[in-house]
Structure formats: structure tokens, C-alpha cells
């Protein structure tokens, strides 16, 4: 089965991560620290079905922030 893995060093911690609403199984969450400060998104590996949507809608996908791997 495939899973999405986020490279936390490459993620730009966008204020509203573009991947969250696109995930069909709601596997992605993002913690807000302050109004304009957020953490990188977290991917629940138990929910992720490896569809790849998050990797394709990430604003910095050219940096390969999210990779889909076989586990
Ligand atoms: S859109 Fe991409 S770079 Fe921005 S917070 Fe989400 S995963 Fe990180
Ligand atoms: S690969 Fe698909 S199911 Fe997994 S986190 Fe990304 S959008 Fe959600």
C-alpha cells in the first residue's frame, strides 16, 4: 500500500496548507500555534490511502515536499 510522507524540512508551513481540504479521507491536519504561525501538516498514516492528491496540490510541489512511497 502507498502512503504520503511529508518532508518537514522542505515544507514552507503555509498559513493554510492547500492539501488539507483536498484529502479524500481527511488524513491531514495542521496545528495552529498563533494566528499567523502554523506547524507543517501532519498525515495520519492509518487513514492515508496513498492517492497522491496532497502531493499534487502542495503549493511547493516543485520542491517535492510530499512524496508517495510504498510501505
Ligand atoms: S502547501 Fe505544501 S509547503 Fe505549504 S504547508 Fe502544505 S505541505 Fe507544506
Ligand atoms: S495521499 Fe491521498 S489519502 Fe494520503 S494524505 Fe495525501 S490526499 Fe490524503
Topology:
Layout lengths: L1 E5 L21 E2 L2 E3 L2 E2 L3 E2 L9 H5 L8 E5 L1
Antiparallel strand pairs: 1-6, 2-5, 3-4
The chain binds iron/sulfur cluster (SF4) (2 copies).
How would you explain this protein's 3D organization?
The chain has a single domain (2-70), classed as Alpha-Beta Plaits. The chain contains one helix and six strands; from the N terminus they run βββββαβ. The chain has one helix at residues 53-57, and strands at residues 2-6, 28-29, 32-34, 37-38, 42-43, 66-70. The strands form three sheets. The chain has a two-stranded antiparallel sheet. Strands 2-5 form a two-stranded antiparallel ribbon. Strand 3 (32-34) and strand 4 (37-38) form a beta hairpin. The protein is globular, with a radius of gyration of 11 Å. It starts with a strand and ends with a strand. The relative contact order is 0.37. The structure holds iron/sulfur cluster (SF4) (2 copies). One iron/sulfur cluster binds at residues 11-14, 17-19, 40-41, 58-60, 65-66. The site of one iron/sulfur cluster has 14 residues, from loops.
In short:
By secondary structure, the protein is mainly β. The protein is built from one helix and six strands; from the N terminus they run E-E-E-E-E-H-E.
Amino acid at each position: 500500500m502507498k502512503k504520503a510522507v511529508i518532508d518537514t524540512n522542505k515544507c514552507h508551513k503555509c498559513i493554510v496548507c492547500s492539501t488539507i481540504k483536498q484529502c479524500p479521507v481527511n488524513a491531514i491536519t495542521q496545528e495552529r500555534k498563533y494566528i499567523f504561525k502554523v506547524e507543517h501538516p501532519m498525515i495520519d498514516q492509518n487513514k492515508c490511502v496513498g492517492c497522491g492528491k496532497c502531493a499534487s496540490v502542495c503549493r511547493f510541489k516543485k520542491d517535492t515536499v510530499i512524496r508517495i512511497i510504498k510501505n
